[in-house]
Structure formats: structure tokens, C-alpha cells
Design goal:
There is one protein chain. Helix content is 43%, strand content 15%. By secondary structure, it is of the alpha+beta class. It has a domain of 40 residues. Strands 1-2 form a two-stranded antiparallel sheet. The protein starts with a helix and ends with a helix. The structure holds zinc ion. The site of zinc ion has 8 residues, from loops.
């Protein structure tokens, strides 16, 4: 009878532990600050190099890697 009670309590404790683990499992956190590696990549219209969009210059829905290429792209776009 003692063994049965011991197994009973082990089962209760195991179940309680499982439930505790289940409810205290850390939720997947989404950092507010954008990750550098998660930045969208854009392509320079002038030279075709791929750069993070935060470092790119935009003009009329086109992206450029530098001010010089932006100027070149604007001149070639005018015609
Ligand atoms: Zn470029």
C-alpha cells in the first residue's frame, strides 16, 4: 500500500511539474528594435549592388547606394 501511495504522489508531482513548465514557458519575444540582419535589402538602380534599405537613398521608388548614383540615376531618368 505504501508503494501505491508513493507512485500516486509521484504522478501528482509529475503532472503539477508538467503544468508548471507549460504555463511558465517563456513566450517568443519580438524585439522592438529592428535587427540589422532583418533589414530589407534593396538594389542600387545604377550599379546593381545590394545594400540594406536603411543605408540606401531613394528617389521616385528607385534605390541607390550613394548620392552619386542617385544623381546619375536622376539624370538618366530625365532624358
Ligand atoms: Zn550604386
Amino acid at each position: 500500500m505504501g508503494l501505491f501511495r508513493l507512485l500516486f504522489w509521484i504522478a501528482i508531482i509529475a503532472a503539477a511539474f508538467w503544468l508548471w513548465r507549460r504555463f511558465t514557458r517563456p513566450a517568443p519575444r519580438r524585439p522592438q528594435a529592428p535587427d540589422e540582419s532583418a533589414q530589407p535589402i534593396v538594389r542600387c538602380e545604377q550599379c546593381g549592388v545590394h545594400i540594406p534599405r536603411v543605408h540606401a537613398l531613394s528617389l521616385d521608388q528607385h534605390w541607390y547606394c550613394s548620392q552619386a548614383h542617385l544623381e546619375q540615376g536622376r539624370k538618366s531618368g530625365e532624358r
